[in-house]
Amino acid sequence: MDNATLSFSRSDFPEGFVFGTAAAALQIEGSGYGGAGPSHWDTFCATPGNIANSENTLVACDHYHRWEEDLDLVRNAGLDAYRFSLSWPRILPEGRGTPNEEGLDFYDRLIDGMLERGLQPWATLYHWEMPAALSDLGGWRNRDVANWFTDYSRLVMNRFGDRIEGTATLNEPWCVAWLSHFLGHHAPGLRDIRAAAHAMHHVLLAHGTAVQALRADGHDNLGIVCNFEYSQPADDKPETIRAAELNDAIYNRWFVGGIFEKTYPTQVLEGLAPHMPQGWQDDFDVIATPLDWFGINYYTRSVIAADPVSLWPSYMTVPGPLPKTDMGWEIYPEGLLHFLKRVGDLTDRKMPIYVTENGLADSEPVNDLVRTDYMDSHFGAALDAIKSGVPLKGFFTWSLMDNFEWAFGYDKRFGMVHVDFETQKRTPKASWHALRQAISTNQPG
Ligand code: GCO
Questions:
Q1: Which of 44, 130, 232, 443 lies 20 to 30 Å from 404, alpha-carbon distance?
Q2: Which domain holds residue 335?
Q3: How far apart are alpha carbons 53 and 422 in whole angstroms?
Q4: Distance from residue 23's CA to the centre of ligand 1 (Å)
Q5: Is 102 a known active-site residue?
Q6: Does the CA dihedral 153-143-226-191 come out positive or negative?
Q7: Substitution site in 128, 176, 297, 374 for ligand 1 pocket (most atoms within 8 Å of beta carbon)
Q8: 398 CA: nearest ligand 1 atom
Q9: Which region, left, alpha or beta, applies to residue 106 given φ > 0 means left and ψ of -120 to 50 means alpha?
Q10: Within a domain: residue 257?
Q11: d(CA 415, CA 232)
Q12: Which of 357, 396, 413 is the best mutation target for the ligand 1 pocket, counting ligand atoms within 8 Å of the beta carbon and taking the most?
């Protein structure tokens, strides 16, 4: 069955390179189980028109009950590590106050289950589940979110930190802030420039505040995961190039600018400054609290053109010429190499970098050759980055199994393992077998 193969093997990578796979709580667990409180995604899913086929996350992959089988799939693929997220409303149903012991017990079992299987647990504290009670208070728009998030983070880390290998505060601040408050595609579904400007800043303030508190509590190996999308100008007209640069600044430079350079890109402030929260300029010492590692999520590039009739930021995405995935995303592994080098340069090639997500949606349930090819070319980009001196320490594929793809519901399948959502049966696809073969320590190099 598995005539798909990958052209690299474990021995092509430096000793100790971490091969992992990633998933996120809301996308797999089943938010209806175990006393979890509601998040802004419950609200978003219940509002007509937001999610394909009106789907929701109540059952998802039923990972809450099937986690042992799922961790076996990670281990049996020969992987070293599993990147997972903890659900804030599962742990604190009201966002603050009394923890849900059932929720804490679930993560105890899950983390111990990883350790029993020899898997390194890589935790993400926030993969997009703002408790509804805090969303009611403004969520990411409210500066208090920095303290809410920090209190939750300390609770998690003081309970589990001794068993976690690496911790990311947040997953993809661009999605948390811009996609969710300016473009309105994700919960809370706002299209509001003031909300977006506040969220763009508060998400980083929350990150920095939490890192400071976790350090004070004695935790280490702390990082953040940002997503990057290569911004390709549609042509070489000056206004097109400026448009692509502005998209690049909003998407790819704002967050690393705050974290590593204590500044935001000027061309973004041209649009956002009037809408920023008061005193934002004074927060950079907190935002730039030193980190131990940095995670890059990379999937695709966008082709950008100027949009003269739109208000700021006046650009638009236009169709590009490259082969596309089921998301309509162009396959462009050169972009991964680009961002590995860019972040490597920004951090003087000293900070350990991980690819924390990379993958594609493809509907083929068994012989997923397109996925295998995609993985091959992106692992190739990772190898090129290492050769050029980028301290890349690991690579997590997205995703272990098909799951809830946010606004796209269960339609878009990112898994190396097929999930039949009627029966919850898991079936490894060819890409899973190919990866196992490539990284198995028993194989000749
Ligand atoms: C992310 C998302 C994942 C998505 C994936 C594909 O971190 O980007 O968290 O949850 O499923 O990116 O869109």
A1: 232
A2: 10-439
A3: 15
A4: 8
A5: no
A6: positive
A7: 297
A8: 5
A9: alpha
A10: yes
A11: 27
A12: 357
Q: Is 1 within the bounds of a domain? A: no
The span from the CA of 226 to the CA of 70, in Å, is 26
Tens of pLDDT, residues 202-224: 999 999 999 999 999 999 999 99
Structure tokens at 347: 């951090």
Bridging pattern class, strands 417-420 and 353-357: unpaired
What's the CA-to-centroid distance between 442 and ligand 1, angstroms?
A: 32
Q: What is the pLDDT of residues 343-395, one digit of tens each?
A: 999 999 999 999 999 999 999 999 999 999 999 999 999 999 999 999 999 99
| Structural domains of the chain, count | 1
Cβ–ligand 1 distance for 300 under 6 Å, the answer no
* pLDDT reported for residue 441: 78
**Domain for residue 5, yes or no?**
no
Determine if ligand 1 sits within 6 Å of the CB of residue 405.
yes
Structure tokens, 250: 């909003």
Q: Is 357 a catalytic residue?
A: yes
Burial of 218 (0-12, 13-18, 19+ CB in 10 A): exposed
| Cα(389) to centroid(ligand 1), Å | 27
Tokens of 182: 């300016």
Position 321 scores a pLDDT of: 98
Helices 63-76 + 101-116 axis angle, to 10: 20
CATH number for 67: 3.20.20.80
Q: What span, in angstroms and rounded, lies between the C-alpha atoms of 317 and 305?
A: 6
Which one is catalytic: 55, 129, 165, 172?
172
Instruction: Estimate to the nearest angstrom the gap between the alpha carbon of 130 and the chain centroid.
Output: 15
Ligand 1 atom closest to Cα of 128? 9
63, 74 contact by CB (below 8 A): no
| Residue 2, domain member (yes or no) | no
Nearest CA to ligand 1 atom 1: 172
- C-alpha of residue 374 to centroid of ligand 1, in Å: 16
